[in-house]
Amino acid sequence: MKDSYDVVIVGGAVIGASVAYFLTANPDFTGSVLVVERDPRFAQASTALSASSIRTQFSNPINVQISQFGLSFIRDFAKVMQVGDDRPDLNFHESGYLFLANTDAQAQILRENHAVQRACGADTVLWSQAELADAFPHLRVDDIVLASYGRSGEGWFNNTGLMNGFRAKARAQGADLIHDEVAAITRDGSSISSVTLKSGAVIRAGIVVNASGPRAGLTARMAGLDVPVEPRKRTLFVLDCAKSPEGSARVAGGRLPLMIDTSGVFIRPEGRYFLSGAVPVDDPAVDFDDFTPRYEEFEDIIWPALAERSEAFEAMKVINQWAGHYDYNTLDHNLIVGRHPEVTNFLFANGFSGHGLQQSPAVGRAVSELITYGAYRSLDFTQVGYERIAENRPFLEKAVI
Q1: CA dist list (Å): 251 to 148, 149, 255
Q2: What is the Cα–Cα distance from 118 to 267, expressed in whole angstroms?
Q3: Which domain covers residue 30, as residue numbers?
Q4: Which pTM value belongs to this model?
Q5: For residues 36 and 176, what is the distance between their CA atoms, to the nearest angstrom?
């Protein structure tokens, strides 16, 4: 480690690692990169504790396009991320997402979202009740008005594989990745000059990238700035079904998609089991170290909804559970990417609200372009920049899980 870097990235999970990879992969960037990560085992990282999925079924074109790039990157990941003889396989299950609507209002949202998705070239379709029943005969669909299904370009994959692939390749390309913690950020007027690490080292920094997940607010405050991001807890349950419906679908080779029920409960296959979760009834900010699962959510929210939706889900038991944190953007639940308008060498890559893993390839590329060229050259992230935060102007996304 040196005492001065052109770019210091605070946070070395999937977002920070992606930024480091794209910077060091770009021949037009000739600077030095330091990635500082406080949790070397990533035991509490949102990346490692996520449901590891990607979808194009959003309501805003930018979110659809972000996922489309992520999809292409995931498909080519083993080749692009190869280091020596290691070709990291993300084990991508391209089995789709399935959104269900049981009211006219929900159905209208699906129609509006579908129009946006199709305009972007996403492979999504709308199904009637009869078409849904034919595709997935295990479901009870009497209450369903409309369904939206991703025929391709959606699914789930190895979350830590994506992160570790980025990290290994960034290191091979010259980035320095260290286990330490940023304890202070020195700001001189409208410019960041250095970061101080918990170990005592002071590192001069040309640019600081805030990629610190649920702790983004803490990092911003060190620089005298503010970002509306807080940790919100989500509990995931691994479930064993006595009569698994996997293999019963009449599409996708019998594979079931990730289904979002009308109740908001989601479920998807996970090997021979299923993975499920739900938005809590009460959803307050939690302590940064609070990772105790909300065990009651299975009995109170998840099982009743799933048992009503399918006979196959009536007899199921929990075999594992864990809790992770969303880096929750309290303004509009959408990513915040770009420079601070006044402290221009402080960049945000925060507030993903559960979408950070799938959005990490496009975000890493965007931040690297902003650093290297002073502007976006691929996707234009201006509409999800920090300016809307300063102006208290939400950028709403209707398809939030």
Answers
A1: 14, 11, 7
A2: 25
A3: 4-70+159-228+331-390
A4: 0.98
A5: 9
